Amino acid sequence: MALTRNDVEQIANLARLELTGTQTAMYQQQLSDILNYADMLDQLDLEGVEPTTQAVTMRNVLRADVVETTLTMDEVLANAPQKANNQFVIQAVLDE
Questions:
Q1: Angle subtended at Cα 20 by Cα 18 and Cα 25, rounded to the nearest 5 degrees
Q2: Whole-model pTM above 0.90?
Q3: Any idea which architecture 5-42 has in CATH?
């Protein structure tokens, strides 16, 4: 299905895009190619092919939730450049 120049201009208008003549011609070709490819896919014989939501089989990759020992507060703050009241001190992002 080939798009006309007018089709591309209407699409650009709906998308609030201002296209030059060169861009209109380029998008006319690219969009026509995309629609032609979709038409080609439409002609495939998919008899017996089950619908799917994933191209590859998904599986749960989560591990069991196991309680383990954690770092102490001193270990957490050991390499902090600045700390106060058991917290990291960082430079203010927004100055007032």
A1: 115
A2: no
A3: Orthogonal Bundle (1.10)
